[in-house]
Fold these 2 entries.
Entry 1:
Amino acid sequence: MQSSKNIAVVGSGLVGSLLALYLKQTGHKVTVFDRRPDVRKVEFSGRSINLAMSNRGWKALRGAGIEKEVRKLALPLDKRALHVNNQALYFQPYGKKGEAIYSISRGVLNRKMIDLAEKAGVKFQFEEKVWDIDLTEAKLFTGASEKSEWKEYNFDLIFGADGAFSRIRHKMQRQSLFNYSQHFIDVGYKELSIPANADGSHKLDNASFHIWPRGEFMLIAMPNLNGSFTCTLFMPFEGEISFESLDTETKADAFFATHFPDIKDEISNLKRDFFKNPTSSMVTIKCYPWSYEGKVTLVGDSAHAIVPFYGQGMNAGFEDISILFEKIAEYKNDWEQLFTAYQEARKPNTDAIAELSYRNFMEMSSKTADADFLLRKKIEKQFAEKHPDIWVPMYSRVTFSDRPYAEALAIGDAQRTIMDKIMKLPNIEENWDSEKIEQKILELTSSKNVLDT
Amino acid sequence: MQSSKNIAVVGSGLVGSLLALYLKQTGHKVTVFDRRPDVRKVEFSGRSINLAMSNRGWKALRGAGIEKEVRKLALPLDKRALHVNNQALYFQPYGKKGEAIYSISRGVLNRKMIDLAEKAGVKFQFEEKVWDIDLTEAKLFTGASEKSEWKEYNFDLIFGADGAFSRIRHKMQRQSLFNYSQHFIDVGYKELSIPANADGSHKLDNASFHIWPRGEFMLIAMPNLNGSFTCTLFMPFEGEISFESLDTETKADAFFATHFPDIKDEISNLKRDFFKNPTSSMVTIKCYPWSYEGKVTLVGDSAHAIVPFYGQGMNAGFEDISILFEKIAEYKNDWEQLFTAYQEARKPNTDAIAELSYRNFMEMSSKTADADFLLRKKIEKQFAEKHPDIWVPMYSRVTFSDRPYAEALAIGDAQRTIMDKIMKLPNIEENWDSEKIEQKILELTSSKNVLDT
């Protein structure tokens, strides 16, 4: 058991709330600061992508004893539903029977997490803006504005859970030997929605993650409990088909009618949201070190924001908390050592999921509709089903496992090299499910120790 | 001719002073702000590395008509002098006969640049700290501290020449779609010195850039006009032999005596500086875009700080000014278009010199003493001398040319591939200067179009 500390968590988002709950359960005094209003008292922002909770997320929730509670808010999706123009709807199961990712509204989950943390005794201070931090002394300074009178708080420890544009990290960044990068992609996103039918049922299959891959842009839809779908349109900011170019109702009408004919009844809803909701950017953020002595450390997006194309942003943030508490169990009251152990354990893995997410961005919009890509997936899938001990697909290693992300990346790369060779075999289109191909894969895998876990 | 603007330059360093002079000569009203005191009125900091002015630097000075003036402050170095333990001093000429880099003290040059700019009518406001900038309105806010009362200035245009830790860029960084990275290396540096002989002469050859390559660490020395040498010790911050580990006079004595026996008479000077001068860090900074509309743009280290191992930091910054004024000549009063053209022209080239400088960091300390590396250099040199039209060494392309850095990098990579093949030829140590090897290189180069300029 640790001796009780007076701890501040900056940020009441998903990771901040979960961390606060864990810390409270460990016996600490916990205050959460957020510059924004209480998310339970305001409308959702219209700028969020539905969450896909998977193994790592559930594990962290289980650690705080709140998995069951959260399961009630989630809908299992066991497959992708690919809406390719002029083709029948095509389903790709995510994993083995019983494996699924879980669609949850970010706002709904965040409200629940804050409720649970508050009930456990965490103190929340909303609409209080942190402007500065004294890293050495673990002091926070808050106020109405950067130039106004500031209030000073003394803590034993401070956690920065304040997201991609973290104020805490911003202060750390001004220090020598702090490595940092922020890289925006030239694609933005916008939240759209498809309401429920009059009887409250879903208008599309509600056990699928729906994708309309269109090359340069892409629409996705994830179901909500209330029968609606939260959709996300990913599209370049500028260019021929872009958020900038779709600047009139007529152009938007034509855009939705041309590219999404199977949901053309929804055009008026999609269009309304298109002009109402903001266009958001996506960024990969990396930094190191995450902690300052035994006083301050970063968790979640503030340490490692990633693009959302692997559905792992929240899962990776929640896994930070699992790993942090593994280190707490190991090092007890030596916060400096445990922060060091935590960041050293996490950094290679959050770099790996950043890389995987970025690759999926490159892949998802273009290749999910590509015949070659689909064949590759089909071969992999068949082989994996026949030889589940030899071949666990990358997606499953990331999504349905809690083995390190870096391991998934390394094994995935080895698998890719094998599949590159397979796809170059003559007449692979015809004899992809022949025994010869299966033997060839077996042969290639047996010489690749890296596939062992 | 441009219409006259009211322009602020933030930063009175080398690039800021040169830019201010150029702008003044073009007919603009120019005010330079610097948070530090006038460098002409204070002692030098004891944390600078001597500058190596080369082609790109001289070209930019020539453009402002101050080349001759600055030449008087510089000493030409036409070769490296390699001090390898237990070996005779070894000289590597930098280029062809007549080609040299020029050693100048940073402080001496900066004082001269400010003098020249001031004489031309540039206004300098020292010890005035810029805390904020309104990018859209081109306003600067200055004050005693971040939280004090601020003074507001209105300008037509603002240039950020405020170095690696630029305040102007810091503000731009908080914007969406601004890409940024800062990467520190785990090696630091410290300024040391070797004073002149009693008669004012230099204690080492004063037409050489002296290097003591020692694997994990390295000492360099560059001559000053007054007979002294400015030395720089590059060494890891932490580890067995490091700034951290050399923490007593006894250890420092042993360190200098063991590793630098040919300058052991200087130990007391070196040691005094070692404990007096600060240890500085080195960082590579990249960002994009550099400009904000037609209002604000970055020049020099604020846009592209690099590690000092190619001697190109100042040269690259000065070249920014050459290119900026090429674009000014082209686009006249369309500042938005000319800022865009400037950043697009510069970015690939500053990325290239960042890469080359980082590679030199990896190479310089370890390989300059390596037999294989020396042989490779010897073969290249001999071939380049025989076939100057076919083979211009990378160092010369960077240092004695004003062709784009990106081109030098691409050609250098092609040359490296060729040399890798040559170095793998059997018995290369014996027959390196045979006609067969020469023919082989000719053959390899003829199939590499990339070597053409």
Entry 2:
Amino acid sequence: MSEQEIRELLTKVKKEEISFEEGVKALKDLPFKDLGFAKIDNHRELRVGYPEIIYCGGKTIEQVREIIKFMLTKENNILATRATEEMYKEVKEFCKDAEYHKEAKIIRIMQKRPQYSDSYIAVVAAGTSDISVCEEAAITAETFGNKVERIYDVGVAGIHRLFDKLDIIRGAKVIIVVAGMEGALASVVGGLVDKPVIAVPTSVGYGANFNGLAALLSMLNSCASGVTVVNIDNGFGAGYSASMINRL
Amino acid sequence: MSEQEIRELLTKVKKEEISFEEGVKALKDLPFKDLGFAKIDNHRELRVGYPEIIYCGGKTIEQVREIIKFMLTKENNILATRATEEMYKEVKEFCKDAEYHKEAKIIRIMQKRPQYSDSYIAVVAAGTSDISVCEEAAITAETFGNKVERIYDVGVAGIHRLFDKLDIIRGAKVIIVVAGMEGALASVVGGLVDKPVIAVPTSVGYGANFNGLAALLSMLNSCASGVTVVNIDNGFGAGYSASMINRL
Amino acid sequence: MSEQEIRELLTKVKKEEISFEEGVKALKDLPFKDLGFAKIDNHRELRVGYPEIIYCGGKTIEQVREIIKFMLTKENNILATRATEEMYKEVKEFCKDAEYHKEAKIIRIMQKRPQYSDSYIAVVAAGTSDISVCEEAAITAETFGNKVERIYDVGVAGIHRLFDKLDIIRGAKVIIVVAGMEGALASVVGGLVDKPVIAVPTSVGYGANFNGLAALLSMLNSCASGVTVVNIDNGFGAGYSASMINRL
Amino acid sequence: MSEQEIRELLTKVKKEEISFEEGVKALKDLPFKDLGFAKIDNHRELRVGYPEIIYCGGKTIEQVREIIKFMLTKENNILATRATEEMYKEVKEFCKDAEYHKEAKIIRIMQKRPQYSDSYIAVVAAGTSDISVCEEAAITAETFGNKVERIYDVGVAGIHRLFDKLDIIRGAKVIIVVAGMEGALASVVGGLVDKPVIAVPTSVGYGANFNGLAALLSMLNSCASGVTVVNIDNGFGAGYSASMINRL
Amino acid sequence: MSEQEIRELLTKVKKEEISFEEGVKALKDLPFKDLGFAKIDNHRELRVGYPEIIYCGGKTIEQVREIIKFMLTKENNILATRATEEMYKEVKEFCKDAEYHKEAKIIRIMQKRPQYSDSYIAVVAAGTSDISVCEEAAITAETFGNKVERIYDVGVAGIHRLFDKLDIIRGAKVIIVVAGMEGALASVVGGLVDKPVIAVPTSVGYGANFNGLAALLSMLNSCASGVTVVNIDNGFGAGYSASMINRL
Amino acid sequence: MSEQEIRELLTKVKKEEISFEEGVKALKDLPFKDLGFAKIDNHRELRVGYPEIIYCGGKTIEQVREIIKFMLTKENNILATRATEEMYKEVKEFCKDAEYHKEAKIIRIMQKRPQYSDSYIAVVAAGTSDISVCEEAAITAETFGNKVERIYDVGVAGIHRLFDKLDIIRGAKVIIVVAGMEGALASVVGGLVDKPVIAVPTSVGYGANFNGLAALLSMLNSCASGVTVVNIDNGFGAGYSASMINRL
Amino acid sequence: MSEQEIRELLTKVKKEEISFEEGVKALKDLPFKDLGFAKIDNHRELRVGYPEIIYCGGKTIEQVREIIKFMLTKENNILATRATEEMYKEVKEFCKDAEYHKEAKIIRIMQKRPQYSDSYIAVVAAGTSDISVCEEAAITAETFGNKVERIYDVGVAGIHRLFDKLDIIRGAKVIIVVAGMEGALASVVGGLVDKPVIAVPTSVGYGANFNGLAALLSMLNSCASGVTVVNIDNGFGAGYSASMINRL
Amino acid sequence: MSEQEIRELLTKVKKEEISFEEGVKALKDLPFKDLGFAKIDNHRELRVGYPEIIYCGGKTIEQVREIIKFMLTKENNILATRATEEMYKEVKEFCKDAEYHKEAKIIRIMQKRPQYSDSYIAVVAAGTSDISVCEEAAITAETFGNKVERIYDVGVAGIHRLFDKLDIIRGAKVIIVVAGMEGALASVVGGLVDKPVIAVPTSVGYGANFNGLAALLSMLNSCASGVTVVNIDNGFGAGYSASMINRL
């Protein structure tokens, strides 16, 4: 609330153009309104289908059920990540619209259809092992109203398959690269495109992989410019950030 | 080169609409042209002032001098990061246009003025200790044709200063958060905005900071969505990625 | 035993104000008495309800049962942390007063009511994931005779909820901040209050969280002064230290 | 600002008991006032001699000089940690009152005498190697108005020297234990007292000490209750936290 | 495709020695052909019995079944590593030729007999604990057409047993050393032979072994020249690399 | 075989004091005999009851059974560490003398009684949590013919209990200190005695204990001289080394 | 020495075909001769120009001078790695043939010309930063009598430059890939060739590179088969192993 | 002080066989006397030449000078480790007897000749790089009155040199093995002897050696029984422990 707005409000109160109670109410909410916390939420609500999010990892079935029940009262779309099939069955009991994306481990409830973007996000991965993280990223991005192109069969060890798909990768507005083991795919893709690349290290591998540390360090040290990184296995985070960029 | 283009080329050669030698030349370059490696470079060149980049870390003064001399022959702008004052003096000898950004440790040679974007990038940091990394990010982004807002006096330990600057931070199209020590600023900013946040951990700190590891892990685990991370002290990488996003 | 006391004792023995045997006995126990080991225990016993403590982690049900049975003979309050529900059932068999705090994983047996402090300890956390560690801290502090205010719904990613509770946090004599993931909450709270803050990193998170390492390093590097740290998931330790400070 | 205060303010504006401009001004500052950021600073200012603090690590002599010059305009006491002798000489040029504590690496400028507490803080260490960290803690605490007892000649390898000093250690309201190598002193002291212990690991040692990591982990895993930990070599942090507790 | 070949092709098209369509086809495939990706595969196919490989770790029984079914259509040999007995039973249902190497955890389907080399690979290990990794290496090498000598009873703690087998070890063309715990066997063997040694650290051990880290670091720091290292427990990788060298 | 012995052997062959075949045989075994590998084994066999050792960790019940059956044919004592109760039952079937030490997880078969030393080994630990490692050390030492004094109730957090037992600890020829958490007990004991101390870190603890790393580093950095360290949880190794020293 | 040889020797002694003293001497050296330690050295000596090797890291100029002086007496070639220019000057004083390879930090003294192999080793790297490690590998391999092809201008971020050199890389018998930062080049090259690849991680980089750890882990986890790894910056080791393979 | 002694003392005071003041004095010192702290020191003093020890690492020349001056007043031998040549020169000024062991970095002042043991300690190392740590161990052991055999030319990569020295190694009562790089020597020696082995990892090496971590982990995981470990580069600690064992 600018000084000008405060002056106008006070003048209105004095001139009784608005009631005393209306003045009190406007001023009472001022601290947070002014700091604009509401801006985010308002901004979010204006988008059709901007979903409520719940991370189910480490939660009990009961907790997930109760949280989703509460969310449903707000009539928004709902995105529940790291959800088990048991959680889905529980939710399906009281919510017909619930759909389960098994590979992504996502329960999704679409109550409003999002407005889809024209541009698309490419999700690139080497093979079938990282599929769960890929799908978490892809479904997240789609739920936020983005078109997604999945390119899952391209690895550094058989790089010609990657080149076959270069046009579709380069056509994207932002690219998510999911890779476990040594994570080299992020650097290779980063060197071939002129778009923001969000790299997701995965915990796929064994031994000196140290649960994804190898891929994480590899990606942070990428020799290709334009690569930023999220937490190990954090498909949701990549999908969310990519959505932000794609919808700019 | 599509099948259609190959058909047309062959037809022209057969009909002698183009000479035999022209046909040979077109086909000889075909592999890389087709894979589109040139696309990137062409794309880059079309932007006015897209700079040549040199990382001076671990290079000798002689190496830097020779590389920059060669780059000058191409008449592009030049951005030399992690450059010492001695390197700058050496370059200044043969290049009047060279400017040295001391805090950013950047030598910059602007031969063409970039077209500046309307939207801007915010570079946010807690204090004076991370200034070198901040300026590396900011100068990089500016050299790539972005407007930059520097907000350097906002730390988590005195959070009201951050709130004073919230409007300018929220007005940015993409936000770079630079933080050493525990890196909490990235999460706090990430929770207050609805824009992509690129977090840069710095090696500022001591003890259990482990040369930036504390801030790096902190940022990778950010509870705020929309935060991606680059390598420790990698101001250039953050500036480059932010530029990509800002110019989408 | 001061020199003066020794002089008086010897004089009494010489003057036969006390018997020879009483003199021998007093001197025989002198080493430990003088070093004052007993002081601690005496001091502890004088407080009403100062509990006996047992850490059940890695113990068998049989071991826990036998230890608690022995403790009951001393008629003190008993606090058993990291206890399973099975342990509780076993204890309940022979001790009607046993109560089980499920979220805290604490078995508590209150045989004497502690004198409660006027000042209170605030236990602050971001959400529901860290609840087990929070409750271990809170129940521990209460058992030691402290009033506790729980503020569990305040996270860095939605910082306005934290500000809503600032008055109650600032009113505490000492504050426990429990946080997993990146642990930024400790720095933010530490910057907003002028009271001792005890930070408890939790193992909540995944990937580059490395079982709480991220939050631990983050808290140790806090840019806010007045923050000290205990072991990952060590709610008991935080509750115990906070109690010491609150009762000073 | 409570709803009641807002009502009164609006009434006053309406009744012209305060001028229109006074009303605007009061409301303009309302957000931060209400959040109470000023509370901290006011609270701090009310204490006599509460010092301004500057961390000189990684700063240039010029930066330190300019910051201290600015601080002097506010007439507070000044505490500059990790300061070199060269910095001190520079400051001494324009500030006669500047004193240099060589072992603590602290420049201190006392413009007002703090009110000293009756209770005292004990700073306990094994020997001469950790002296720099000890003195940083001790001088910090003294500058904040605390009496400090230094007990520097007590190590675990010669534990009888520790017992000689037990009375003075137990007499403190809060105890700082500084230890490098394996950091066992924190556990031993923690087991002998019934007061809050703040443990400071130091980087003193070599090999598998890993720059203080051994002592840090050791202290975090202390088997003695009531021990909290600060960053490696963070004497200032320990002194600050101890001061907070001692002055409760 | 050399310039000369392009000239000849164009000439043939012009002279109609080949049809227009043949010219188009030859040029369409040119990019990849020229880069020679096919060379690898052609090269591989020419060897009798060069197997298809599948890493079963982290795959479901269904995934393994479908992949192997598809592979069988190509009539190559198949090597499935990290396969469980359940996977084997599933495969055995539709493929009579499937054999299960229990210790190696390998399913193998030999449809063509490889041409065996004259020279042999030695697989050296200390005892029975590393047997699974050893056999993965040995079976892999055999499937690729190498003779393998297994020397499994030779450890550093009883070094005379190693000397008894020196002749057979020295007779190999390349030596694989598998070792857990401290991995010293790689250095000892490396010092006794004048052949390439491929060291495989295993995760056998406990405590400060850190799941194979001790053996890995030990082998990377081997004081014996000629030792290269693969990932922890990566018997397949060692067998594959040794096969490459043995068949040079 | 010294030069002198060779001379004598050759002379005897020449003089036909021994047969030609005897000469060949003596020389054929010369390499290993001379290197003295047999010395160790001979030396070992001469001691009454020097046991055969088997580490059961990671072995199957079948493997343990077969190995022990084979060992029994040599009529030595047998010590099987990290053995489960199931393994014991299996062994008991065919070996009446087998005894199971449940806490130590040791199967022991005593076929000959060892000659016991006069001096004794002290095994010192803080409490009940490390009991399994303590007993592995103690039973191992006893099986090798050492007298062992167990002092299990002495921790750093209640140091007076340690002093009560000082005489018995100081009376030992060598002392094993077993400690988890921060491992401070090793330094405290090391400072109180003038005997070799073998420290065994255990994995007891949680969080920043990192499975025994904290105690391991602590012990390696012990400020007390005369402390050497074995692997985490390696009670057997400590018992074996202590036995070597005690029987010198 | 086989049984047959022993029989013959004894017979000769008996028949006095050789003197008694000759018999003693032959038998005295038997242990090592029989174990064949000499085999290695004999084998090595038979190759023309097989060099003596000295690692100068951490040695003083005096030590290097004395060692090389001693080596010169044996008239072999000499390869001194990690040598400073000062060391070279010292050596040049007494050895005219000494040559200094500045980038490789190698002093080389060629007294005999090695027989060069027909096949060659390819040394592949991304740029100029890793040049020192590359040259250490290349000069080492050349000194051992191998032809070497250097391909230093090919990085993952500009992958078309790598493809331009594919033929020369594929023509090698063994390939050394040197890479810092994220080390992705090893996987990319490994996927493009069917030859043994020896990967050398370098310490080039900063931040989360952790002095080469990122590249090391990346290479150990390479998704391309046929890649083995040596220690960080160990150009010598790679050159030595490659030489062994190339000369098989 | 036993109960009997207390009875006798009290009786004497009562009977005035000793004066009142003598009784007070005897009782005043009782606590520590009884705990027997003096026992250690008395025990130490009784040995001829038991030295005073000072660790010079991180101390200034002034501090070292003052400490040694004070020590000289007690007329004991003095052992100053990690001492620079400058420190030695300073000490030599006021102490003619000071001798400097350059490789060991030890200043030694022998005022009394120790009684030498009959048995000896073997110090075994691979080469010249670890010489400083070896000599620190050897000189320490000698100063404590032990005979020492140095065997410095035996490495795992040329294991026959080790066998040449086996007799002298096996003749020792206790063996110190010093090794950097991968530390395999400890396991090899441990497997060849039946005596206590104290392993000292050194920081010699580079890259994945991580300043001695590789050797440390290797030694802790030694497959040979009877090996205990001290801190990286801790030659003094090894020498001290070996002395304790040798003099039992």
